[in-house]
Each structure stands twice: as C-alpha cells, then as structure tokens.
Amino acid sequence: MHEFIEKNIGLMGLLIFIVIAMGGLVEITPLLFQTQTTQPAEGVRPYPALQFAGRDIYVREGCYNCHSQMVRPFRAETERYGHYSVAGEFVYDRPFQWGSKRTGPDLARVGGRYTDDWHYAHLMNPRDVVPESNMPAYPWLAERTIDGEAVAARMRAQRDYLGVPYTDEELERAAAEVDGKTEMEALIAYLQGLGVAFQNKR
C-alpha cells in the first residue's frame, strides 16, 4: 500500500492535503469558540484616533522588526516586563505586532513607564537617553503632521470590514482629535497606551 501511494503522485498529494486539513481543523476550530481568544481582555478598548494613527506609524516605520509586543509566560519575562500577554489584548490589532525578534526590548507593557519627554528624546536620538542603543533616530516624525481625514477613513474601514466597535461619534471626532498633531505625538501616544490595562496585574 505504501509503495502504491508513493508511486501515485496525485493520490499522495490528496492524502497529504487531507492530513493537513484535519490537523488544521483539530488545532484551529476550538480557538474560534473560546471567548478568551475572540473577546477583548478586561480594560482593552479600541484605539482612540491619536493612538490609532501612532500604531500606523509604528507599523510603517518597521518598529516590529526589532521590538516584540508579546510577553511570554516565563518568570524572567514577567518579572522584567509584567503580566504575560493574553489573546484578548490583541483583538483590535490588525496586523498583530507580536514580533519574534528582540533587538530592542519588548514593548507590550511600555505604556506609562517613561514620560512623553523621554520618548520624544529617545525617538529624536536614542543614544541621548540609552548610550548603548543601536536604534535609528526618527527626527522626521516631529516635522510631519497627521492627515486627520485619512485616519478617520482607516478607522471607519476597521469598523466596517473588521468589526472594531467604533461608534459614529468616535469616527466623527477622529479627524479633529488628530488635527495639528505630529507623527511623533501620535507614536508617543500609541507607546504610552501599550499594556496599560495590565499594569496592576502580575
């Protein structure tokens, strides 16, 4: 039988597909019915307009290439960063920013650890606050302003196509909330919001 399957490429391909499909069903289907993987964790809310814009900048600048946003459930990590990450933290993230490489520290719990001024100085020139840092500087973020209408349109798309529960009022206010704000301010707002729902959890 084994030899017959190996000689019949079409049959072998079909059997491989069936095995992979069954494995996927066994692994993935239960997750779709577990509320802790599809419902927001306590205290997790959709991003306000300024943080939403900052998250887009975080993605655009490739920050996830060096910074993860997932505290693994190991003692060394939870003592350094705080409560381990749970699926409900990421229900409004598209795409997820878990990352797999840590050239820089994990940022899942960075919100509130440093002042806005510290983040500003760090983004302007990281070596001013962390001399051994190899992170590049991002001075242009302080010069570029945010397009409020584009932010509102992206938030509306998140609601309409991905189910993020933004209200009509939030969408109407979005452009005004980011009016005159720089990309630097938006990125700092995003960083300051990371992990704040889990600050008092261990």
Q: Roughly what fraction of the amino acids lie in strands?
A: under 5%
State the helix count: 9
Total strand segments: 0
What is the N-to-C order of secondary-structure elements (H for helix, E for strand)?
HHHHHHHHH
| Biggest sheet layout | none
Termini separation comes to: 55 Å
Q: Please bin the fraction of helical residues.
A: 40-55%
As residue ranges, the low-confidence spans are none
Average of the residue pLDDT scores: 91
Return Rg in Å: 21 Å
Net shape: globular
Give the helix/strand class. mainly alpha
Describe the overall structure.
About 50% of the residues lie in helices and about 0% in strands. With about 200 residues, the chain is mainly alpha-helical. Helix 4 crosses helix 9, helix 6 (about 115-125) crosses helix 9 (about 185-195) and helix 7 (about 150-160) runs antiparallel to helix 8 (about 170-180). The model has no long low-confidence stretch (mean pLDDT about 90).
SSE layout:
Layout: H1 2-7, H2 9-32, H3 35-38, H4 49-60, H5 75-81, H6 116-124, H7 148-162, H8 168-178, H9 183-193
